Amino acid sequence: DPNEDMEWNDILRDFGIRPPKQKTKDEIEEMVLHLQKEAEGKMNLEELKEAEDDFDEADKKAIEMYRQQRLQEWKCLQRRQKYEELRKICAEQYVKEVTNAPEDVWVIIHLCVWCISMCLLVNEHLSVLARKFPEVKFLKAIVNSCIQNYHDRCLPTILVYKTGEIKGRFIGVAECGGICLKVEELEWKLAEVGALETDLEENPKKDIMNMMTLSVR
Predict the structure, then answer these.
(1) What is the pLDDT confidence band of residue 139, given thresholds at 50, 70 and 90?
(2) All domains of the chain, ordered by start, with CATH?
(3) Using an 8 Å Cβ cutoff, are 144 and 113 in contact?
(4) Chain centre to alpha carbon of residue 15
(5) What is the phi/psi pair of residue 140, to 5°?
(6) Which residue, among 162, 161, 160, has the nearest Cα to 175 in the 3D structure?
(7) Using N-to-C axis directions, what is the helix angle for 183-192 and 117-132, rounded to 10°?
(8) How many distinct helices (H) and strands (E) make up the chain?
(9) Quick one: pLDDT band at residue 69, thresholds 50, 70, 90?
(10) How far, in Å, CA of 85 to CA of 159, rounded?
(11) Cα 186 to Cα 204: distance, rounded to the nearest angstrom
């Protein structure tokens, strides 16, 4: 048996008389797990790259798969750690923070004033959602610093951006959800335009809307 672990077979392999011993599926899986554990405990990605010269082809494939997996996890972690809060910006930052945001990032900006209670409510809800959806960029800005002579009846205004384009807009109290707006209702609205991946199964305002329709009838 050329794959049998015998000293004579090992000698023949060293002289090239017998072909290299083929690794079994279990041996390969064990090797991959061992390399992953060793990498997690002792090596970073740079050290793995330096050690590649000592690996055979199967080892290199396993390491490359592991490197790509760790790289994707690191990128996702970096992206998720960017935001996690509702940040205030000024007009000078609008292009950089909103229009020129990374293409894979949704941007939700609230144009508001501090003296309108509905604006304060929306800011409160957006702060909650910013923590729940850290991969989404949540911003707020004083409206007059961005748009001159913007009428108060259009507040609050929520704009949703992706790749520098407006994908959704909610202008005024009614479109934003009314003075009794709940955070779940705002989450649903933002999910409908694609900005959030909500875990809500249906519109939280559905029952209220059904009751209002029944009342009108």
Answers:
(1) very high
(2) 1-80 (no CATH), 87-209 (3.40.30.10)
(3) yes
(4) 54
(5) -140, 150
(6) 160
(7) 70
(8) 10, 5
(9) confident
(10) 17
(11) 9
pLDDT in tens, 162-216: 999 999 999 999 999 999 999 999 999 999 999 999 999 898 876 555 554 555 5
Provide the 8-state DSSP code for 24.
Answer: P
Look-up of token digits 């072909």: 19
Tokens representing 16 are 């090239």
Residue 51 CB neighbour total at 10 angstroms: 15
Q: Spell out a b/e string for 116-136, using b for 16 or more CB atoms within 10 Å of the CB, else e.
A: eebbebbbebbeebbeebebb
Q: How far apart are CA 82 and CA 98, in angstroms?
A: 14
Q: Which residues pair with 88 in a beta bridge?
A: 140
Residue with tokens 């945001």: 101
CB within 8 Å of 158: residues ≥ 6 apart: 108, 109, 110, 111, 122, 169, 170, 176
* pTM (two decimals): 0.61
